Amino acid sequence: MKYLIADLVTEFEPKHSKFKNLAKPFEFFGDRKTDILISLSDDYINSMLKRMVAGTTIDAAEEFSYAGKFCKSIIKYNAMLIHSSAIEYKDKAYLFAADSGVGKSTHTALWRKAFENEVKMINDDKPVVRIIDGKAIAYGTPFDGGSGIANNISAPLGAVVFIKRGESNSIRKAQTPEIIKKLYFSTAHFVSRDTADKMLTNFENLISCTDFYILTCNMDISAAYIARDAIVK
């Protein structure tokens, strides 16, 4: 079956119902040639399951396996996964990234509460950013990371925000060294030795055309307003 993910024709055959349902909105019936072909055996997926935390389902292992292969394959297409919660607001995409447990999903939930129907969720775990003609575009993917939020939406990238937990709310522009470090940790699982140089080039191209911020925030709804007022141009 062919799917259009990040405007790349991707061919694979989901075996389990959860991933089939997540992938369905991305189905592609055009006549473009396949850009990415992924074929995974049952043995590969079962091996992945054994390495994941206890209680992980075979459905989740399948999705994670395909996500890994896809995210390695897209690097040569000037694209990268950014582990984040991605929203669309006023026709632009905004990505909120954080270490596990810090609250990236909690923060985008505050945006939905504050700005209601003006906010659309793109993906709550594994959106992809691709550089095309010098501009960054964020794409939803069928890889939900267990969140259940994986929509087929794309929009020009407005900003990437790295979240830190704090008692009060503040936001500042990120500096290049900290951007590279944080981008690396959001993509490290999908970078191999033969793709590392290309990924660094992708980072440089993304930094040249995108604003990056560090948001220190609590869980009060005012955090969404402070972030919105700083990053939305």
Which keywords apply here?
globular, 233 residues, alpha+beta, single chain, 12 strands, 9-stranded mixed beta sheet
Task: Write a short abstract of this structure.
The protein has 233 residues and is an alpha+beta fold. It has seven helices and twelve strands.
Chain-wise SSE layout:
Elements: E1 2-5, E2 8-11, H1 17-23, E3 36-37, H2 42-51, H3 58-73, E4 79-81, E5 85-89, E6 92-97, H4 104-115, E7 119-123, E8 128-132, E9 135-139, E10 154-165, E11 170-173, H5 176-187, H6 196-209, E12 211-217, H7 222-231
Parallel strand pairs: 2-3, 6-10, 10-12
Antiparallel strand pairs: 1-2, 4-8, 5-6, 5-7, 8-9, 9-10, 11-12
Helix pairs in contact: 2-3, 4-7, 5-6
Strand content: 25-35%
List how many beta strands DSSP finds. 12
Number of helices: 7
Ends distance: 40 Å
Give start-end ranges of low-pLDDT stretches.
none
Shape: globular
Helix content class: 25-40%
Rg, please? 17 Å
Query: How is the main sheet built?
Result: 9 strands, mixed
Which secondary-structure class do the elements indicate? alpha+beta
What is the mean pLDDT? 94
Q: Please provide the ordered H/E string of secondary-structure elements.
A: EEHEHHEEEHEEEEEHHEH
